[in-house]
Amino acid sequence: MFRRLFGKQEEKTQDELLLEESLQKTRGGVLGRIGTIFQANEITDELWDELEETLIMADVGMETTAELVEKTRSRVERDGIKATADAYLILKREMVNLLKADEPLQIEQPRILTVVLVVGVNGSGKTTTIGKLAYRYKQRGKKVVLAAGDTFRAAAIEQLQVWGKRAGVDVIAQAPGSDPAAVLFDAMRASQESRKAEILIVDTAGRLQNKFNLMQELEKMRRVAARQVHAAPHETLLVLDASTGQNAILQAKGFQETAGVTGIVLTKLDGTAKGGAVLSIKKVLGVPVRFVGSGEKIGDLAEFDPVAFVEGLVGE
Amino acid sequence: MDAESARLCTELPDYFSILPNRSGRQFVFESLSDKLQAVFSQLASHGKLSEADVNAALREVRLALLEADVNFKVVKDFVGRIKERAIGVEVMDSLTPAQQVVKIVNDELINLLGKPAPLNLSGQPPTVIMLVGLQGAGKTTMAGKLALRLRKQGQRPLLVAADVYRPAAIQQLEILGKQIDIPVYSEGTDVSPATIARNAIRVAKEKAHTVVILDTAGRLQIDDAMMQELEQVRLVARPADILLVVDAMTGQEAVHVAEGFHARVPTTGLIMTKIDGDARGGAALSIREVTGVPIKFLGTSEKLDGLEPFQPDRMASRILGMGDILTLIERAQENITEEDAAAMEERLASGQFDFEDFLDQLRQLKRLGSITDLLKMIPGMNQMAKDVDPQEATKNLKMVEAIISSMTVHERQNPHVLNGSRRRRIATGSGTTVNDVNQLVKQFKDMQKMMKQMGVMGGNRKKKRGRKGGRREGAGMFGGGNLMDMFGGR
Ligand SMILES: Nc1nc2c(ncn2[C@@H]2O[C@H](COP(=O)(O)OP(=O)(O)OP(=O)(O)O)[C@@H](O)[C@H]2O)c(=O)[nH]1
Ligand SMILES: Nc1nc2c(ncn2[C@@H]2O[C@H](COP(=O)(O)OP(=O)(O)OP(=O)(O)O)[C@@H](O)[C@H]2O)c(=O)[nH]1
Ligand SMILES: [Mg+2]
Ligand SMILES: [Mg+2]
């Protein structure tokens, strides 16, 4: 069937084969859940309209939605595809391909000290995600240290300290109100000297991307990091709440420009929101999703799986 | 929106067209009104709005609303209603068809967003206010803000830490309480929120507190156990207000969140936070539609004075992506001394606006911050700010300054005397080309037109302020009146 569907490409890469395999694996389960859209017997205009509606309601955004629907549609028409299930597969493939990361995550590459900067708007889930990441890498045998770079929000330091305790890692902090760049500087030195850490994860205060001075503060933190360790920060993760609508794209742009975002952590996917905006972010900025958060417990973090994500997006 | 502001909204682009973008082209202010203008320029329409006119316009309206995160289904209904209202409407003399449609849409939006409502404080004290919402929406911060506001109104609030889950949630509220010197009631994390609420109300009665503000943990509306907990708190606390706190960035799911909370604990009002960002805030409309509860307040900064009563007209233009130009003007006024502003207003009112004023304006603008910052303050313009090359813009402004500085005072005050030879002299004097000078003079003329209109608008606003009594009240705006906030200082 795949030969028929994607007949134009005789040779398939290992990656594509893997993708098809995983798509097929989940197919049965999904088709049960798709309900209205792709269960119709025929491919009609309504089907495309409904598809568009589904994507928009998942916060995918108008432009990306239109493009996805158009691409799928022209493919279906060109190849004379009749079965809705096959059309669905084409769409999924399109979306999964869009979401796939081009580069591997940098966190576990061998180097003296890996610095991970965690940024995002207020309340998106940065501090919680850092607790989860610390736990994750500790489980994988890494020596992790956290830096309490949010010196602004009430009890932000205490909150990170609770997470540090839960994960069983050290937290380097200064008094509330101190300069975040100074905290980072200290934490990097301590990580290298006394603590012998391999990974330093840095919390930052929530900030809206349209606040110029606050974004400058991030830039300063980056400069401080780069001066101490070659190519630091090695990953800058933007934490994005899945319930965010079209502003997510502005967030990604704003933070990418000043903080050089290298990956997204999509949180709160345990809610009803789908987080479809990440499709546009990847399309426009090329920034991939790296992790997803799905709860408030320390283990509620998973590596991003494009297939499962796409299922969640169109599969209900 | 009155006819005058509707017209102004469609004219705003000129004001920003002096800024070059990276590709050197002039800016396009992609507001809804612009798009509508474009739609209507292709139709030769006057008199009544025809069905074709309206359909073409509504496509743009639909897009604008979806881009603002208004829920898909809500948009569908809204557009349907507008269509019924708009077809056959007589286009007012003072308006173009595009402006007429903007006006209808805007009026309907304001209508839907509803009137701002105060807190329900009429019952027997202590009045209980309960804050509910998703994780990270801004409940704890809002608890502090409401407490501060209520105390200013003569109440004696008690803050209650009923979030026993989030790490350091209690400390967070305690720190906020200390900042504003308002007591916080807490019992640690081993007691159920309902018990905490009951005890807190008892203590409030003993200590003659008049208002009790319950901060609850963030929760998902589909988390049955957690929603049950809220129901229990409600039964015990009998709140006069259950306020749903929603982040302005919320997307399509806002309807389900609001419905979910409303179904379990009947909410009495909505509070939208983080309005100081550049999200369009369409969720406000979605939630109004599905719950019918009034929007009571807006959260406009991380600081505890960042609270404002809801203003439907501002929200409407924000959702429509027409920018909050009034805010920009007000903020400018706040940063520019009263005397400067008064002097300028006088010049504008008298219909004079020359290169001297222009230079003055430029210098004042510089005091406000960089061009990119200024653009970022306008919802929907953030995108555009990204396209401005700050160095290019600064260079451009410098050039403008140089050109004007090379004019004689007479020329500045009487731009019409700028003939070819004068322009050549100015170009040489300022190290620019005649073409640069020509362009500036042309842009200046556009701006002059614009300024005249703003002068008229300034007059309107003054009246409004007077009616509401006091400048601060009238100056209520998205993002708070604080300049530090506006540029993101803390
Ligand atoms: N349901 C759910 N809640 C989450 C998830 N991640 C974080 N949260 C909750 O979201 C709220 C905000 O999380 P924080 O980690 O404090 O967010 P932050 O980005 O550090 O916030 P600021 O520092 O104030 O900007 C908390 O109540 C967290 O428990 C998630 O994946 N699922
Ligand atoms: N810029 C801005 N930030 C805000 C506003 N309101 C709250 N915040 C920030 O948003 C983040 C979350 O606020 P909280 O008050 O902790 O939110 P919450 O709803 O109590 O969070 P949980 O208890 O974890 O569910 C913090 O960083 C606040 O400083 C606002 O109006 N504007
Ligand atoms: Mg935090
Ligand atoms: Mg809270």
Would you write up a description of this structure?
The complex is a heterodimer of chains A (316) and B (490). Chain A has 316 residues and is of the alpha/beta class. Chain A has two domains: 2-99, Four Helix Bundle (Hemerythrin (Met), subunit A), CATH 1.20.120; 114-306, P-loop containing nucleotide triphosphate hydrolases (Rossmann fold). Chain A is built from 13 helices and eight strands. Chain A has helices at 2-5, 14-34, 36-39, 45-57, 62-78, 84-99, 126-139, 156-167, 180-192, 212-228, 247-259, 277-285, 306-314, and strands at residues 114-119, 144-149, 170-172, 199-204, 235-241, 263-267, 289-293, 301-303. In chain A, strands 3-2-4-1-5-6-7-8 form an eight-stranded mixed beta sheet, sandwiched between helices. In chain A, a hairpin with a 7-residue loop joins strand 7 (289-293) and strand 8. The longest helix of chain A has 21 residues, at 14-34. In chain B, helix 19 (390-405) crosses helix 21. Chain B starts with a helix and ends with a helix. Chain B has 490 residues and is α/β, with parallel strands linked by helices. In chain B, a hairpin with a 7-residue loop joins strand 7 (295-299) and strand 8 (307-309). Chain B has three domains: 32-113, Four Helix Bundle (Hemerythrin (Met), subunit A), CATH 1.20.120; 127-313, P-loop containing nucleotide triphosphate hydrolases (Rossmann fold); 325-486, 434 Repressor (Amino-terminal Domain), CATH 1.10.260. Chain B has helices at residues 3-11, 13-16, 32-41, 51-67, 72-86, 97-113, 139-152, 169-180, 193-206, 224-237, 254-264, 283-291, 312-319, 325-335, 338-349, 355-368, 371-376, 382-387, 390-405, 409-413, 420-430, 434-468, 471-474, 483-486, and strands at 127-132, 157-162, 184-185, 211-216, 241-247, 269-273, 295-299, 307-309. Classes of the chains: A alpha/beta (316), B alpha/beta (490). At the A-B interface, helix 4, helix 8, helix 10 and helix 11 of A face helix 4, helix 8, helix 11, helix 17 and helix 18 of B. One guanosine-5'-triphosphate (GTP) sits between chains B (133, 135-141, 163, 166, 169, 217-218, 273-274, 276, 299-302, 306) and A (122-123, 153, 206, 208). One guanosine-5'-triphosphate sits between chains A (120, 122-128, 150, 153, 156, 206, 239, 267-268, 270, 293-296, 300) and B (135-136, 166, 218, 220).
